[in-house]
Design goal:
Rossmann fold; 11 helices; alpha/beta; 18% strand; four-stranded parallel β-sheet; six-stranded mixed β-sheet
Length: 379
């Protein structure tokens, strides 16, 4: 894959761009956590956007226009994310922005896009990003609510009644905790324990010991790497045999790598990207998933992740909106995003509307377990 040309960035270095096009180039911005604690999210997202940009431009662009994708690294830091957002809007004057990678960072900058009337398509999953609906804010990951619902369906099928939750104290974890505390009792379960850990914590033995004393039937851990891997290892070290669910925030090979043997048998909701080869041939997502896996693997190697898929879908949805309206103006992109229906992406089949800026439902998830160091579809 050809190297991308670097240009000077004022706030955060520009990770990928294209050679200078004429004035008709469509400018698409992106803010991603390519470095820092959330780099496992941002790196595959950045790789994906670079790859798709090159593919589209090599094929002649969209509606006859080339793309200029400007990607900034927020380094997993909210302040740098805010600065990058302002630069994309005020100086780069992009038509639309993809990202950020992190829920907290997305929530911190959403207001700027509403004021500027530029659409933002987040790669983060917190429900607060799209509920209540802001006309200018969309996202592509499956929502926390959908993930919790799938976990609780599985827990009910297995006869669990008392559930403990263990959540990280960042934006993603706080959003998940709110949904868990709402739905666990609402669905007829008893909340046996409610424990929290910090994003930088390296040992969760104390929290798991308290959960052990609460006699829970199962534990639901909500977080992104590396914390959940620590939870998995600590559980094994404690000899705790209480079943452990993870959230979709660990649906990548990186989690299995970090958790090692402690990942065996864990159950979680995930998008179909983790198990493309296990999908029926007639599933509407299969061609999209196969193409993405083949292209990404050829360009960057076999470490495919659902997180790169979120960026893929954001990019593809933007392309669809531009084609539908024959326009790359911010307002037209926004309006046409809301008209997209039945659009197959890597994370699900999207149907946006003025009332729904996520576009997915529970069917976007499958339940998987980790068996012999890889993913196995349960249902």
């Amino acid at each position: 894959m050809k190297a991308t040309k670097c240009v000077v960035a004022l706030v955060a270095y520009l990770l990928a761009c294209v050679p200078a096009f004429g004035g008709d180039a469509i400018k698409i911005g992106a803010i991603l956590s390519v470095t820092g604690p959330a780099s496992f999210l941002g790196e595959p997202e950045k790789n994906t956007l670079v790859m798709l940009q090159e593919q589209i431009n090599a094929a002649g662009g969209v509606n006859g226009q080339q793309l200029e994708v400007i990607i900034y690294d927020d380094e997993s830091d909210v302040n740098k994310c805010v600065m990058a957002a302002k630069k994309l809007l005020d100086q780069d004057q992009v038509a639309v922005v993809i990202g950020p990678s992190i829920s907290g960072n997305t929530l911190a900058i959403s207001k700027f896009f509403s004021s500027a009337e530029v659409p933002l398509i987040s790669c983060a999953a917190a429900e607060k990003i799209v509920r209540p609906v802001d006309p200018w804010i969309f996202n592509t990951p499956q929502l926390d609510r959908h993930a919790v619902s799938r976990i609780l369906m599985d827990a009910r099928d297995k006869g669990y009644k008392r559930l403990a939750i263990l959540t990280v104290s960042d934006g993603y974890g706080q959003a998940g905790r709110a949904v868990l505390k709402e739905l666990v009792p609402a669905e007829g379960f008893e909340l046996a324990a409610d424990e929290v850990y910090g994003p930088k914590d390296t040992d969760m033995t104390a929290q798991l010991t308290k959960i052990k004393g609460a006699s829970a039937d199962a534990i639901i851990c909500w977080g992104t790497n590396p914390g959940p891997a620590v939870v998995a290892r600590n559980r094994v070290q404690l000899g705790l045999d209480t079943p452990l669910y993870m959230s979709h925030g660990v649906a990548s090979g990186k989690f299995i790598e970090l958790a090692g043997d402690a990942a065996e048998g864990l159950v979680l909701p995930a998008g179909r990207l983790v198990a493309v080869d296990q999908l029926p041939a007639d599933h509407p997502q299969k061609p999209v998933l196969e193409a993405y896996v083949a292209d990404y693997t050829k360009a960057f190697g076999p470490q495919i992740s659902s997180f790169g898929g979120y960026a893929h879908d954001a990019f593809a949805l933007v392309m669809e909106a531009i084609k539908m309206g024959g326009s790359a103006k911010s307002g037209d992109i926004r309006d046409n995003l809301e008209k997209i229906s039945g659009f197959a992406g890597t994370s699900g089949v999207y149907t946006y509307s003025p009332e729904n800026h996520n576009g997915l439902d529970e069917s976007a998830f499958i339940m998987v377990t980790i068996e012999n160091g890889t993913w196995k579809v349960l249902n």
